[in-house]
Amino acid sequence: MQLVLPRHLRPRREKIFGPAPSHRLDGNAKARVWASANAYNSANRVGRQHQGPLTWATLRVLRALLWRFHSADGGGRCFPSYERIAAAAKCHRDSVCVAIRALEDAGILTWVNRIACIRRQQRDLVGHWVTVFEVVRSSNGYRFLDPLAAMRGGKSAKSENPARPQNRDLKSQGARLNGARVMQKDALQGEPGSLARAKLSPTERAAIVGRMDAGTATRADWVAWKGSL
After folding, report:
1. From residue 40, how far is each of 28, 44, 104, 174 by CA, in Å?
2. In contact, 188 and 222? CB cutoff 8 Å
3. How confident is the model at residue 189 (pLDDT cuts 50, 70, 90)?
4. CA–CA separation, 102 and 92 (whole Å)
5. Which of 48, 56, 73, 140 would you label with 85, given CA atoms 20 to 30 Å apart?
6. Mean pLDDT in residue range 143-168
7. Which residues pair with 141 in a beta bridge?
8. ∠ at Cα 154 (150, 155), nearest 5°?
9. Which helix (H) or strand (E) holds 167?
10. What integer is the mean pLDDT of 97-102?
11. CB atoms closer than 10 angstroms to residue 228
């Protein structure tokens, strides 16, 4: 109902203050967020709209946040100012504000208001210099909503990089990591016995090892490799 009402009639967004949230995303998670934005456009596009509810400027803002500013500090945080986003997305500062609101309405991201305590010198009523502490609002801290993580009940989505913490946890639980795929041991069960017990020749073994190193090994390669151990 809120999306149908004009923006000036919708209830104001509750302001949440705090530090910038830390949420690591690999390249595949960022691609899912980008695909989710395009899917939202396709599902909600009406007549006389070139893209959909998310305009070209909004998509440029999202692209700059994802691949320019996210995790720029190495800690999975994203807190650029409107001016820096506008410079990277090549749009006006006001367009950045509208784009971020549209992205939150689409369920792509959310944010918190970052605050900072600054100290400055000023003269009091009698002309003496005094130190004044002031709490000011700095930039926003953005957090992207991975659609795959939402489907899994809020758990972190499975990263396709074997070095990521999610895959390290899976490996400790018995998962076998193969390049961009995560294969559980129980998935290799129930294969035909003849294939699992087949012995590999040196040529076949070298070919399978080469495909494993290149990350192009198939399920049959893993089954044959397991059967030859």
Report:
1. 18, 6, 12, 37
2. yes
3. very low
4. 15
5. 48
6. 59
7. 112
8. 115
9. helix 165-172
10. 92
11. 15
Hey, what amino acid is at 39? Answer: A
CA distance to 40, 60, 90, 121, 223, per residue, from 95 (Å): 19, 10, 10, 35, 54
For 91, 106, 160, 169, 218, the CA distances from 27, given in Å and listed in that order, are: 25, 21, 9, 19, 23
Query: What per-residue confidence (pLDDT) applies to 99?
Result: 94
Which bin fits 127, alpha (ψ -120 to 50), beta or left (φ > 0)?
left
What is the model's pLDDT at position 58? 94
Confidence of residue 12 (pLDDT cuts 50, 70, 90): low
Among 17, 6, 2, 13, CA closest to 141: 17
Give the helix, strand, coil percentages of the chain, each rounded to 5.
45, 15, 40
Q: Which residues pair with 182 in a beta bridge?
A: 177
Instruction: Give the pLDDT score at 223.
Output: 74
Nearest Cα neighbor of 207 from 196, 217, 194, 199 is 217
- Supply the pLDDT for residue 190: 40
Backbone conformation region of residue 41, classed left if phi is above 0, alpha if psi is from -120 to 50, else beta: alpha
| DSSP for residue 193 | H
- How would you label 3-31 residue by residue, b for 16+ Cβ within 10 Å and e otherwise? eeeeeeeeeeeeeeeeebbebbbbebbbe
Q: What percentage of residues in the chain have a pLDDT greater than 70? A: 69
